[in-house]
Amino acid sequence: MNILERKIDLINYEVYEKEIEKGNIINGYIFCGLDEELIKEGINLIVKKEINDEAKELNLIKIDGMNANFDTIMNACETMPFMSEKKVVLIYRANFLQDKSDSAGTKLYNDIKKYISNIPPYTILVMYYLFKDKRERPNKNKKITALSKFASIVYCDKLKKDRYIKKIGEIFKEKGKAIGRTELIYFSEKVHNNFDIIKREIDKIISYCEDREIKKSDIDLLISSSNEDDIFDLVELIAQRKIDKAIDIAKEILYKSDQHMLMISAIQRHFLRLYEIKLGVLQGKRVENFISELRLPQFVCEKLMGQSSRFTEKQLTELIKLCVSTETKMKSTGIDKTMEMEFLLINTLTVKK
C-alpha cells in the first residue's frame, strides 16, 4: 500500500502488529519510544513479512542515524531491490528527529522531509528515535508530527497487561526455560517495563536458577521493584538539579499509589542507603562488600555506588534531615501533602556541597 493512499495516524504497538498481520504495510514508518528492544522487534515484523531470508543481506540496508548523510539515505532508497519486490532502508537512532538538534541534524531532517513523499514504491523507509525520558510524547514533537503525512508513527509505549505478560512468556520459551504462570505474572509485575531490561533480567534469572524451577524468592532476590526504580530516577534528577522533572516523576509515583507517607519514607531510606554506601566507599569498601552487606545483586550495588558518588557526605546528611522535617510536617492534619512534597524537592536546591 502506498503511503499516499490512506490517512496516516499515530498508532500504538498493538495496533501496528495487527496491521502488519493483515499485510497492511506502507512505504514509511517512524518508530519512537523508550524501549529500543520493542522497537527492533516491531521493525523485524516488516522485514520478515517483506524480505525472504536468502535476500535479506542485500535488501535490508541499515544506516546509523547519528552519522548519516542525505546522499547515502537517498541512494539506499533509490537502488532497486535484489531478487525481491521490496527492500527496507532502516535509519536507526535517528536523533535528527528530536525537537532540538544541531545544524547538521536540522539540515538532514529538512532534506528527508522533502524527499519522503517521493520514496520509490519498492522501498520501505523506516526510522526510529529513542526518547530521552518517559515524559516525551510523539504528539508533542513537531518534527515527528510533520512527517505523519508521509509515514506511520508507531509509538512503542507500554503494552496492555495480557499482551505484555504473554510476550514475556514467549521470551522465556525462546530461551528454553519454563516458568510457572504464577511466577510469570509476578515477574511481569516486578520487572521494569522495558524489553531491553526484561531480556537482561530473564538471562540473569535463567543463569541463577540453572536447571531448577524459578521461584518467587529468586525474582525477589534478583529484581528491584519498579517503585524503587522510580525513586532512583527521582534522586538522580535531584543530583542533576533538574527539579521540574523530579516533580513530574513524583506526581507519576503518587498517581500510581497516592501514598505520600510511603513515598517520603522511600526517598528517606534511599538517601540513608546512599549515605551508608558513601561512608563505606570512604572506608575502602568495594562492590563485593556491599553485595554481602545489603544482600543485593551486583548491578544494583554498582548503580547505588555510582549515584552516591554524585553527592557529598554533607549533602546526604542535609537531604536526610530535609526528608525527616517534611515527614513530620506531613503527619500534621490539614497539610497539603502534595505541595509539601514539591517544597521538599525545591528545597533540595538549597542543599550545598
From TrEMBL:
<feature type="domain" description="DNA polymerase III delta N-terminal">
    <location>
        <begin position="29"/>
        <end position="155"/>
    </location>
</feature>
<dbReference type="GO" id="GO:0003677">
    <property type="term" value="F:DNA binding"/>
</dbReference>
<keyword id="KW-0548">Nucleotidyltransferase</keyword>
<dbReference type="InterPro" id="IPR005790">
    <property type="entry name" value="DNA_polIII_delta"/>
</dbReference>
<dbReference type="InterPro" id="IPR048466">
    <property type="entry name" value="DNA_pol3_delta-like_C"/>
</dbReference>
<feature type="domain" description="DNA polymerase III delta subunit-like C-terminal">
    <location>
        <begin position="228"/>
        <end position="347"/>
    </location>
</feature>
<dbReference type="GO" id="GO:0009360">
    <property type="term" value="C:DNA polymerase III complex"/>
</dbReference>
<dbReference type="Pfam" id="PF06144">
    <property type="entry name" value="DNA_pol3_delta"/>
</dbReference>
<dbReference type="GO" id="GO:0006261">
    <property type="term" value="P:DNA-templated DNA replication"/>
</dbReference>
<dbReference type="InterPro" id="IPR008921">
    <property type="entry name" value="DNA_pol3_clamp-load_cplx_C"/>
</dbReference>
<dbReference type="InterPro" id="IPR010372">
    <property type="entry name" value="DNA_pol3_delta_N"/>
</dbReference>
<dbReference type="GO" id="GO:0003887">
    <property type="term" value="F:DNA-directed DNA polymerase activity"/>
</dbReference>
<protein>
    <recommendedName>
        <fullName>DNA polymerase III subunit delta</fullName>
        <ecNumber>2.7.7.7</ecNumber>
    </recommendedName>
</protein>
<dbReference type="InterPro" id="IPR027417">
    <property type="entry name" value="P-loop_NTPase"/>
</dbReference>
<keyword id="KW-0239">DNA-directed DNA polymerase</keyword>
<comment type="similarity">
    <text>Belongs to the DNA polymerase HolA subunit family.</text>
</comment>
<dbReference type="Pfam" id="PF21694">
    <property type="entry name" value="DNA_pol3_delta_C"/>
</dbReference>
<keyword id="KW-0235">DNA replication</keyword>
<keyword id="KW-0808">Transferase</keyword>
